[in-house]
């Protein structure tokens, strides 16, 4: 409860989103069977949704005691948030991850995994392509030996 | 009786189980030691591969990884000042200063021996306490289950870092995720948004891999280039006199570890911090000041986090409630193998209990062996660059998730949970309560409705039951006390009644 604590950039927005989300959950829980009886499929979910709403409100109240972050306007706040929590490395790695998941079904697991490993290692280390190819190949062989042969797991 | 012994010794006498336990412990030490790879992550990814195995084989490997992983984190805490796992945060307080003074070898040796001491105390207490609690659990009414689960969720919320409201929100969110799918009684869809895929529910291993694997991997991207410090390691084995000197403290902190471990939802990380705090308050003349390389500061968290493993198994084997995130995954594994963790497990499948006890002891023996070996090789291993580790984690998450149901949809869900987890992490939410909520939520739903049915659908009667049955009354008071303890109300009451309480 330190009054000098500073709010994180975007914390208020996030908190508002939590509250909205909790209300949506409450609505969905209500949709299951309404307030028909204390023993309906929807009774416990409604209770949980109420707990979510109450705790989201409490989280919002905890924010009141904190100092506002230093930013001017929404756009600045958004940019600060992006810089702090979604720096280039996170964004690009995220993009690579999404592409990788999408590619698994088109170009088989091994090919997409190999490409994903090479690209992300090269990106995260700023270069050394040959070295990355070597590492990715070794990892792929290990994955094959461990999962396909030893654990006999179905790979995507 | 002879059956009991044969179950206890099962893991010791079967070469395959012996090998799997050894392999698990060995792998656990290294997985736990790599900063960014946690035991929970390792167990949740690995458990999905063992679904097609024999149940004993799967349990042997998981026990090994659990024991090895909890210990493994201490090595990187001592050598690099980066706790390899949350449970070794406290180990770094005094472990790293010791390494800076050139005593890394001895610190690792001592922490190995003390982890084994803690592990053995934890296992013995599991073996003696679980049957008693199991007997008691058979007398639990559905409402008591509901109360125990509530206590578990409240404790996770209040003991984990940050605010109670955030902890409770996370647990409730988890419960909602756990409730997605068909209602077990009426087969009505809940939170399925009309999607057929969601009727079967969301497998919580998918949620877990997303939260602990993907979210953590993204989080690690922030400190890609934390510098690597190289260490010299020698003189590993601690002297017998030294071990003897710390034995009383280690027994006390082991007990703290077991007790904290038993509480549903709270695990080795909190046990270790509480034990460190205990050592700091009770040891008058530490070998060096605390925080500057006191051996006591190393002994306390290491015994406690290992002892918590045995403790965490107690509610899992007796009530079917996870003692921490790892046992939550193990519950999943048992269910997949057709076993039903809960009070009937000890009656229907007593071998699982004694096998686990024997197996935990065996894993501790292997821990002693592997813990004192290969420290030089290890120093190389923990230096694995994050640039390689992070993409590899993601690939392992994909493989792990896909292997559960061979479904790419679940893999997409896993990535989605990863992003959600990342966002929640940014704003100081913990991942543990979400997982526990996902497991305890459906359990609470079922027990709530059973309790309501047996009270004839009269909420008033159910509430009356909460205070008239002695067992329920104890549990209800615990819930009320925890809630009060986290509100300003208690402070107000204290200040109001302080003259009265001063007399007592």
Can you describe this structure?
The complex is a heterodimer of chains A (156) and B (504). Chain A has 156 residues and is mainly alpha-helical. Chain A has 2 domains: 11-85; 88-150, no CATH class. Chain A is built from 6 helices and no strands. The radius of gyration of chain A is 24 Å and the shape is flat. With 504 residues, chain B is mainly alpha-helical. Chain B has one domain (1-487). Chain B: InterPro entries: DUF112_TM. Chain B: This is C4-dicarboxylate ABC transporter permease. Chain B: The chain crosses the membrane at residues 20-47, 59-78, 107-133, 145-162, 168-186, 198-219, 255-276, 325-346, 352-375, 387-405, 411-441, 462-484.
Short description:
The complex is a heterodimer of chains A (156) and B (504). By secondary structure, chain A is an all-alpha fold.
Relevant terms:
heterodimer; A: 156 residues; mainly alpha; 2 domains; flat; B: mainly alpha; 74% helix; globular; disordered C terminus
Residue windows where pLDDT falls under 50 for at least 5 positions of chain A: none
The major sheet of chain B is characterized as:
2 strands, antiparallel
Number of domains of chain A: 2
Instruction: Kindly provide the radius of gyration of chain A, computed on alpha-carbon positions and rounded to a whole number of angstroms.
Output: 24 Å
Instruction: Using the alpha-carbon principal axes, give the shape of chain A.
Output: flat
Radius of gyration of chain B: 22 Å
Q: What integer is the average pLDDT of chain B?
A: 83
How many strands of chain A?
0
SSE ordering of chain A: HHHHHH
Mean pLDDT of chain A: 87
Number of E strands of chain B: 2
Molecular shape of chain B:
globular
Largest interface: A-B, 55 and 59 residues
Strand order of the largest sheet of chain B: 1-2
Strand content of chain B: under 5%
Strand content of chain A: under 5%
> Topology as H/E string of chain B?
HHHHHHHHHEEHHHHHHHHHHHHHH
Q: Gap between N and C termini of chain B, in Å?
A: 48 Å
Domain DUF112 (chain B): 18-436
Protein name (chain B): C4-dicarboxylate ABC transporter permease
Transmembrane segments (chain B): 20-47, 59-78, 107-133, 145-162, 168-186, 198-219, 255-276, 325-346, 352-375, 387-405, 411-441, 462-484
Keywords (chain B): Membrane, Transmembrane, Transmembrane helix
